Amino acid sequence: MFEEIARRRMTPGAGEWASWFPPGMPGLGAMPDHMRFARTGRWWADRPSEPRAAALTCAGYTLMGGDPHAVPPEALAPLAYGYFAVPDRFLPLLGEAFERIVPWERMLWVRRDNVPATRPVTGMKVTVRRMTGADAAAVHGLGPELSWIAGTWDGPRRLAASGRCWGAFHDGRLLSLACTYFRGSLYEDIAVATRPEERGRGLAAACVRGLCADITARGTLPTWTCSRHNEPSRRLAATAGFRLYREYVHYAVGASAVRTGRQAAALA
């Protein structure tokens, strides 16, 4: 069995599971810290006390730790169509649990120095500023294609009110934003979303510069994660002063391969 457990049960130092999801990690590794801080995501374990295996899920991403043999493949059905960052020992379990498992090469970047000057925003007059809770409607107005940017904060309202988001506006319309996607204790992994028709004007770089200044003032380090094949994202990271830290792989999975129905439905 693999069940969701109360968030308050998964506190730092609460048992062996804590070593599976250590605090203070960069990139996607900051997700456990973010889930505790923002009180978001879901916590799963094979049993409520002294778990042998556990999983953390947030905005379609899953981290797993412990013994994969303690997790039956059908228990992962609720986590279909997501992304898994797991130790190699979990790969046979994923292969049994899902119809498709595709490795996705990723890059993790860290910015340690001052953010260099970026090229100026071109075109119409734009205001780049820190966002507030009053900007929730503007984030929602980015539309379904860019709605993923608010996923780790449970939606536009909490993202806008987080104090960890910078936006570029023209006549009150949000054109681009950069935000802390996963807020860790030592690192803040950031994400950027820009309207397709506004790309290439320096808007994202300007937002990133403001956000990184805030992160540095908080005493944490900005990180950036992207696909190895996403050239625009890689160029923006380099322009914003990020340097490659390491490369890794996480896995995109498809539908559940176990269709017995009863156990999966009970866990949904």
Automatic annotation (TrEMBL):
<dbReference type="Pfam" id="PF12746">
    <property type="entry name" value="GNAT_acetyltran"/>
</dbReference>
<dbReference type="InterPro" id="IPR027365">
    <property type="entry name" value="GNAT_acetyltra_YdfB-like"/>
</dbReference>
<protein>
    <submittedName>
        <fullName>GNAT superfamily N-acetyltransferase</fullName>
    </submittedName>
</protein>
<keyword id="KW-0808">Transferase</keyword>
<feature type="domain" description="N-acetyltransferase">
    <location>
        <begin position="126"/>
        <end position="265"/>
    </location>
</feature>
<dbReference type="InterPro" id="IPR000182">
    <property type="entry name" value="GNAT_dom"/>
</dbReference>
<dbReference type="GO" id="GO:0016747">
    <property type="term" value="F:acyltransferase activity, transferring groups other than amino-acyl groups"/>
</dbReference>
<dbReference type="InterPro" id="IPR016181">
    <property type="entry name" value="Acyl_CoA_acyltransferase"/>
</dbReference>
